[in-house]
Design a protein that fits this description.
The chain has 218 residues and is mainly α. It has a single domain, classed as Alpha-lytic protease prodomain-like. It is built from 6 helices and no strands. Helix 2 packs antiparallel against helix 3 and helix 2 runs antiparallel to helix 5. The radius of gyration is 18 Å and the shape is elongated.
Length: 218
Amino acid sequence: MTNLATHLDDDGHDDHDHYLVPFLLIFTFAIVEAIGSWYTGSLALLSDAGHMFTDVAALGLAWLAAVLAKNPNVARHKSGVSYAELVVSIINALTMLAVIVYVVLEAIHRFKHPQQVEGVWLTVIATLGLIVNLIVAKQLHHQTEHHGESLNNRAAFLHVMGDLLGSVTAVAAGVVIYLTGWMPIDPILSLFISVLLLVFTLNLIRDIAKTLQTTQPL
């Protein structure tokens, strides 16, 4: 895989402006899913809401890093990547790991103490979340194509892709519960998505490590 530590280009566009719409969409629906997880009792929806809240932080930090990266006097690593971008990427990776650990522990608890889940509302809310994540993912991908790729963009995109997978999982859990009433599917799919997110997060950590080992500007 190509090292993604290419720093932001400065073609005159304000890259940080492109984080505003994704930030507002994710922030708004994170609140909706948090309330929805309480109402439905779904761990899959709760984990997706947790991922969305980490996205809010990720996109906010990405905006900050993009602003700082435009400053020619900003401190940079030997690879050419600003230290702000590196710090943002590391924080994002660590927060994602924390979310994964929480979901795994909660899933284990749910196996021991099953909880009723409202399948219909879970499906409706998760489907809306899936639509929001598709919109945000498309916008971030569009930004990468037109304004260059960076660890900063990669970290933010990682969080959104995690949310996208989480929404798909929550939809699947809702459908199964509605059709069959089988509650264990909720923690089972939550564990499945946690494994996938761990793979993506480890890839980001690998790219960060490669960047830190680079001694020449990229």
